[in-house]
Amino acid sequence: MLPPHGRFAPSPTGTLHLGNLRTALLAWLFARSQDARFLMRVEDLDTGRVRREHETQQLADLAAIGLDWDGDVVRQSERLDLYADAVARLDADGLLYPCWCTRREIREAASAPHGALPEGAYPGTCRDLTAAERAARERSGRPPALRLHAGSARVTFDDRLLGPLEGVVDDLVIRRNDGAPAYNLAVVVDDAAQHIGEVVRGADLADSTPRQLLLARLLGLEPAPRYAHVPLVLGPDGARLAKRHGSVTLADRRALGESAEQVRGLLAAGVGLAAPGEAPSMRDLLDRFDPARLPTEPTTFDAAVG
Ligand code: GLU
């Protein structure tokens, strides 16, 4: 069995809000309560949106609420060779094809019914191009992305919190048309290379898991990690927590006079690990932590109430 290393993998594209911080705290609790190592991986492949100052701020906020991690912070931008190697392996196995579709073309084509594939899935336009169609696209000069021949694979897994889940995998992008490895590929390569035994992350990523499991299988990177998708934090309007919901970052809360320990208490209270207004230590939280008692439904945070 793999050692059950845990990890948190933030994308430095903005400030972490209370929902992100709570996911990080839970990932830390899952790992540390099993005496596992806890790794910090910065997912900075989206060069258009990533800022180094966001990374610095995110890591400072995570440390301020009490998280520690083992070893150096790992940055995906420093591991491009690993992803290129994985892309080359899939390609050598005949599992990839070039795709010239724009987002708009996909949206329009995907609105037509496509059998088993979920809504928004790639309908396969570039999979079966005639030689003439392909030549025309090549002449366009637009660089292609690379997609996986997923064969509408049906993948099931047993989520530690959500129970049995399944998904049909569409032909996901493996390498973007700007040459960057796609999120799903990089995550799978890194989780395997870093010996992650348990992935704890927000429930919004549960839909990506069948894709990642299929990739792990095709790349021979099994056993894949176990997954625990933790509940999201919603604003009072029922939408995923965001800046417009008010004081939702550590800096915002500090500006209201709250300490980092009080913010940690607020995060813990949202998942039943603290009483309202209490500021438990990390040790207290570890003592109280029991995955079986975590909520599985999203919770609501109203910044006006706190
Ligand atoms: N970097 C991703 C995010 O910030 C998380 C990826 C993961 O945990 O698998 O949404």
UniProtKB/TrEMBL annotation:
Q: Where is this motif: 'KMSKS' region?
A: 240-244
Q: How is the cofactor bound?
A: Binds 1 zinc ion per subunit.
- Return the EC number: 6.1.1.-
- Binding positions (Zn(2+)): 99, 101, 122, 126
Residue intervals of the Glutamyl/glutaminyl-tRNA synthetase class Ib catalytic domain: 6-292
Tell me the InterPro entries matching this sequence. Answer: aa-tRNA-synth_I_CS, Glu-Q_tRNA(Asp)_Synthase, Glu/Gln-tRNA-synth, Glu/Gln-tRNA-synth_Ib_cat-dom, GluQ/Sye, Rossmann-like_a/b/a_fold
- Establish whether keyword Cytoplasm is in the entry: no
Q: Where are the transmembrane segments?
A: none
GO MF annotations, alphabetized: ligase activity
The reply on keyword Zinc is yes
Q: What class of enzyme is it?
A: ligase
The listed location of motif 'HIGH' region is 10-20
Signal sequence span is none
Q: Where does ATP bind?
A: 243
Q: Kindly list the cofactors needed.
A: Zn(2+)
Please provide the record's keywords in A-Z order: Aminoacyl-tRNA synthetase, ATP-binding, Ligase, Metal-binding, Nucleotide-binding, Protein biosynthesis, Zinc
Report residues binding L-glutamate. 7-11, 43, 183, 201
Q: Which family does it belong to?
A: Belongs to the class-I aminoacyl-tRNA synthetase family. GluQ subfamily.
HAMAP family, alphabetized: Glu_Q_tRNA_synth (MF_01428)
Q: What does the protein in this record do?
A: Catalyzes the tRNA-independent activation of glutamate in presence of ATP and the subsequent transfer of glutamate onto a tRNA(Asp). Glutamate is transferred on the 2-amino-5-(4,5-dihydroxy-2-cyclopenten-1-yl) moiety of the queuosine in the wobble position of the QUC anticodon.
Q: What name does UniProt use for this protein?
A: Glutamyl-Q tRNA(Asp) synthetase
Source organism per UniProt: Svornostia abyssi
